[in-house]
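Page 42, continued from yesterday. The earlier attempt failed because a stray header line got pasted into the input along with the sequence. Redoing it now with the clean sequence only.
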Amino acid sequence: MPYQMKNGNWKAQVRKNGKRRERTFETKKEAIAWESQLRLSEEGWEEKTGITCLLDWAEAYLDDCQERYVRKTYVEKRSAFKRLFKKIDPQMDVEKLTPAEVRPHLLGEKKTRSGYASNKDRKNLLAGWNWGIKFMNPPLPKESPFDIQKMPEERSPRYIPPEEDFWKAFEQAQGQDRVMLQALIYLACRRGELFRLKWEDVDFEKKRVRLWTRKRENGTFECEWLPMVKELFDGLSWWKNSCPVKSEFVFVCLDQKPFCIEYYGGPFKHRQHFIKRLCEKAGVKPFGFHSIRHLAASIIYGRGFSLSVIQDILRHKSPTTTNRYLKSLGVENAREALECLSVSSSNRENRENDLPKSIFGGH
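This time it went through. Structure tokens are written below.
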């Protein structure tokens, strides 16, 4: 695929069986046409050079990612490479890329976007380089140019709605929407897990639900069972008998507006404004799908359950991840702990009488 160089011209390139040809054009249209013509030709190819350029590495890694990860993750990684190649020549030999070239690029991303965004690009590019060390032939140099210090971040905390606000929004929901909210709060599931849920994953006899997630290091789908509380059991039972569409998926698109009709009867992909509209009707501050997952964890923690139990419910591999979900509760718990260090209510009065009156403004 052609890419635009700093001087505004377009560089076309075609690779076949380890061989490569390149040519520069003034327009993208000319570059695409040349690539298409050359792919059909069997003559004029350069001999295999054995040199790995940055674009070779990027294409190999992204091809692998496309097979292993969900599209959202793949697009995130692909975008990181696109931004990198706007500042660094993709035809550069991998041996020549150093932290001295990488750091200005990441600093620029911090200034134009944010420290968090810059660090996310760093993470994806570093992961790609480590992949190249293990799986490319020849392997990439072991000293990764992306293994540099992270940028400082200023991240706003995720908004977690009060429990009463969730139920106010819930009261505005009807039909399938109401059951979806029940599943979100009673299973503490991710949006993708909810949209992938099939009727074969709902075990009414044993009152449990099977959730599939691909959020694992190797991108493999894994499933785990969670118990189904009575409210969710009743809601799913009703929906199974009431859904107007026969589908293997539990939740399906039923909107027949012009821009949705082609998706009618199929599983949801995004559904971005569903909860926002309910919040507006209820008159509460808008929140999203993942905020409900945080809220569920917060409620469970507030009921006194241990970190390990919450980790099981959220299906985290590491307790560190669960800790991040509960971080919003840390301040209040710290306040309670610090108040225990102050004069207790049982002997506060006695201790005050033993102290000099000047401390309390007396004479």
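Notes: The two ends are 85 Å apart (CA to CA).
Reminder to self: strip header lines before submitting.
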